[in-house]
Design goal:
heterodimer; A: mainly beta; seven-stranded mixed β-sheet; four-stranded antiparallel β-sheet; globular; B: mainly beta; five-stranded antiparallel β-sheet; 11 strands
């Protein structure tokens, strides 16, 4: 049971480049989330999805887009990367019940130069 | 986010008890969580407490919940060097099932 898998694990982008981060979960969870983690800022929610075909904005959505075409996958896109998007990105999923235990991927360390 | 607040650092000696504190704002949170993040890894659920409980004990871990003050604490007994990590408090906001995390407390355990 793989749980939540993120790809890639590391990436360096030049300012203005685009990329997509992939998150896959095999637990049949309804809810999926993208967070970014920055020193001293904790985890901030970028976007989330409460089911296949639905997405919603979180706390810091600007500069990012997401898609949930299949229940098991949640993609995070950066259309035009900026140095301020240098961060560690975490994907998580949860069943979407009152007990919202979240299961996290290992993270993607993104550097924008 | 600012809805959940934690101190950023805690340093303890090996063998002592550690107490990590958290305050939250949403009185309708049903579950409150403690997650642990080891270096270079994602977060893993350590323990959780249901909002109608005051205390939960799980081996070396004790969670205390004061609903009146919206205060949650995690006590680790006999702290070991392997407990060094970042600990995140989290709540689920009013039925939204979206976990909101504090900034995390870095626990440093020294000999």
């Amino acid at each position: 049971n793989a749980g939540v898998t993120q790809t890639p694990k590391f990436r360096v982008l030049k300012t203005g480049q685009s990329m997509t981060l992939l998150c896959a979960q095999d637990m049949n969870h309804e809810y999926m989330y993208w967070y970014r983690q920055d020193p001293g800022m904790g985890l901030r929610l970028i976007h989330y999805s409460v089911g296949e075909g639905t997405t919603a904005k979180g706390e810091v959505p600007d500069g990012y887009n997401v898609s949930r075409l299949k229940k098991q996958n949640f993609l995070l896109g950066l259309e035009s990367a900026a140095p301020s998007q240098t961060s560690v990105y975490f994907c998580a999923s949860s069943p979407g019940t009152a007990n919202t235990e979240a299961f996290f991927g290992q993270g993607t360390r993104l550097t924008v130069v | 986010g600012e809805d959940v607040e934690q101190s950023l650092f805690l340093s303890v000696r090996e063998g002592d008890s550690s107490v990590i504190n958290c305050t939250y704002t949403d009185s309708s949170s049903t579950y409150l969580y403690w997650y642990k993040q080891e270096p270079g890894a994602g977060l893993q659920l350590l323990t959780y407490i249901f909002s109608n409980m005051d205390m939960k004990q799980d081996q070396r871990l004790t969670v205390l919940l004061n609903k009146k003050d919206k205060h949650l604490s995690l006590r680790i007994a006999d702290t070991q060097t392997g407990d060094s990590a970042i600990y995140f408090c989290a709540e689920s906001m009013g039925g939204s099932y979206i976990p909101t995390f504090g900034r995390g407390t870095s626990l440093i355990v020294h000999p």
